[in-house]
Amino acid sequence: MSRGIRFRKLPLKSKMSEILKEIQDGEFTKEWEKSITKLKFKMIKYFATKTKINKLEKQVRKSLKLKEYDIYEEEAPTEEEFAKLERISDELQLFEQYYE
Length: 100
What we know:
- The protein is mainly α.
- It has helices at about 15-25, 25-35, 35-50, 50-65, 80-85, 90-100.
- The protein has one domain.
């Protein structure tokens, strides 16, 4: 989920190579060991609820009378949480722009 935003534009090969390098050199692990990560993940999940596919899935489940659930469902971030996110605000703006 944290890397998915990079796949919205083609070509994908260079993006996938870049992400693989981040995993191999430990950058991905270091990122997710930071104390702000839990809040960052909450924000990413919140933006994921705004995707078209997520909204479509809800409509299909309702139409088919299937149990409605959302594995990404997340409360909207509070003002206090937004204030804590200055360090990663540029990264989160990408998600916000993509999911609007």
